[in-house]
Amino acid sequence: MAIRNIRQMGDPVLTKVCKDVKDVSERTKELISDMFDTMYEAEGVGLAAPQVGILKRIFVVDVTGEDPILFINPEILETSGEQTGYEGCLSVEGKTGMVTRPDHVKVKAHDINMNEFEMEADGFLARAILHENDHLNGHLYVEKVEGPLLTNEELQQILEQSKEDEED
Ligand code: NI
């Protein structure tokens, strides 16, 4: 198990377009394993290779803590619908922002054996896939944020306020 250093916003590696993976070498397998370890250690739901400084088209997600999914050379085939909600990123530590994204995604990718698979996802999983896929093209969610980037404290206040409003 190896935890890699997560690059933070401002690091130029996060703005680069990543390259396709041609074959999964031992080194790439180690990278993938480290990416899962690093994501779980940081309590994230997704991590893309450029976030650990590697410009390869690879990302991992696990939105439940029990459903790890690896995407190699992902391709978004279709999106539909719309969802608006708070989003964060391990490369933008301690911040949250409101982002609107499609609510449904159909994606094609390769697994660890370079076998192609297709999957469809809705809601939070769709959000995570689209967020991570953006990383592979050098984009961060902050480019899509509506309104201010909130600190955890500010977010907490807003959530408490809306709870009080509901109770009124
Ligand atoms: Ni991110």
Structural notes for this entry:
The protein is an alpha+beta fold and 168 residues long. The chain has one domain (12-167): Peptide deformylase (Peptide Deformylase). Helix content is 27%, strand content 33%. The chain has three helices and eight strands, in the order H-E-E-E-E-E-E-E-H-E-H. The chain has helices at residues 26-41, 123-136, 152-167, and strands spanning 46-48, 58-61, 69-80, 83-89, 92-101, 104-110, 116-122, 146-151. The strands form two sheets. The chain has a five-stranded antiparallel β-sheet, with helices on both faces. A three-stranded antiparallel β-sheet has the order 4-5-8. Strand 6 and strand 7 form a beta hairpin. The termini are far apart. The mean pLDDT is 96. Bound molecules: nickel (II) ion. Nickel (II) ion binds at residues 89-91, 131, 135.
* Main beta sheet strand tally, sense and closure: 5 strands, antiparallel
- CATH homologous superfamily title: Peptide deformylase
Strand adjacency order, main sheet: 1-2-3-6-7
Please compute the radius of gyration using only Cα atoms: 16 Å
Number of helices: 3
- CATH topology label: Peptide Deformylase
> How far do the termini sit from each other?
49 Å
Order of helices and strands: HEEEEEEEHEH
Round the mean pLDDT to the nearest integer and report it: 96
Coarse morphology: globular
- From the coordinates shown, what is the CATH architecture? Alpha-Beta Complex
Ligand set = nickel (II) ion
Outline the low-pLDDT stretches. none
Sheet/helix structural class: alpha+beta
- Give the tally of structural domains: 1
- Which percent band covers the strand fraction? 25-35%
Number of strands: 8
Fraction in helix: 25-40%
CATH class: Alpha Beta
